Structure formats: structure tokens, C-alpha cells
Amino acid sequence: MVLAAVxxxxxxxxxxxxxxxxxxxxxxxxxxxxxxxxxxxAGVHALRQHQGWMPGVGWGGLAxxxxxxxxxxxxxxxxxxATAMAxxxxxxxxIVIAIERDSYPAAAARARPVGWGRSLRLALRSILRTxxxxxxxxxxxxxxxxxxxxxxxxxLVLNAALLGRDMADMVEPRHPDLPPIPxxxxxxxxxxxxxxxxxxxxxxxxxxxxxxxxxxxLHGARRNMP
Length: 226
Hints:
Blueprint: H1 2-9, H2 16-51, H3 57-103, H4 105-110, H5 116-143, H6 150-171, H7 183-197, H8 206-223
């Protein structure tokens, strides 16, 4: 069922509502990271001035730029998925409604609006949960680097669970009358999303793909019920 949901989600990527949401979410994500980079650059500069490190203009500026770039890259690895999914949670109704109207019109007619306030709460919980758990796992990530694949394995296991919950939160509140996505299916759905996030370029589409996948998982599970 998870594979079917992944495949059924593919056409949703080129849906008009999906493309509008993709542009909106990418612009917001880039803006957030630009502000983060500016704040980090200012912080590194202030720290260097305060500590008196490398007073020379040339080398000092290069060191600042290098330190800021490394921190932004590390933060990007940790925060891109969390930020993209949190922004997606804010606007998920747009794509979810469009997919349900196309594929599950009867269910779309019965859906309960989530509302901006609840969407904001879900987005905040998503980013705090993701950042918190990944920071908690950071020592294990570093220790497992010596294994070659251990860090990636732990990342996928942990973030599959986090992503699965985020994806379920996008669709389940709209249909309280339906049984929730089973825990195993939720984790597998999250694993598929986590793998998409690892692929360069394709990871830009991962939030849209994930939302569409969640819709098909929820309604596909109902359709397969006896």
C-alpha cells in the first residue's frame, strides 16, 4: 500500500495547487535560511571582535565567511527537512484539498477544515520535534560515522518516524471519522519520504510528494478495509 501511495503521489507534483505551494514553500524556506545565514554571520563577527581573534581584516573576514558557511551547511543538513515540512504543514490544506477533490471527491465533501490556528500549532510541533530529536541523536550520529553507514541508518530510522507523524498530522485531522494510518504504515510512509529528501533536486519536491502520499495512504487504507 505504501508503494501504491508513492506512485499515486507522483502526478500530484505537477498539479497546479502543488506547483503554487512548491514555489511558496521554497521561497519561505530560502528566506528563512538567508536570515539564518545573516544572523550567524553577524554572530560570528561579533564573537571574533569580542575575543580579538585574527584582528587583520583580510584573514579575519575569510575566517568569518568560512565559519559561517560551515555552520549554515551543518544547519541546512539538520534544518532543511524540518523547515520545509513545517512550512508545508502551514499550507497543507491547499494541496490536500486539491488531491482529495480529484481522487476522493466524496471524502473531500465530508472533510473538516483544519484552520490556520491548528495548522500553525502542528507546524511548530513538527519543527520542535524534529530539531529536538535530531539534536538528541547528534552524539550517536557522530559516533556511528566510523561505521560508514550507521549514521545514515540511524538518520533514516529516526526521521522516518518523525516524518510519518508529520504526514499523518497533515491529513488525519481533516477526517476524524476515518481510522488513522496504522503505525507500521506511517513509519514506512515516513521512510519513503526520508529517502526522497536525500536525493538532490528531488528533495525540493519531497514536501509536496509527502503530503500527496499521506492523502493516498489515509484513503487507500479505508478503501482496502473489508
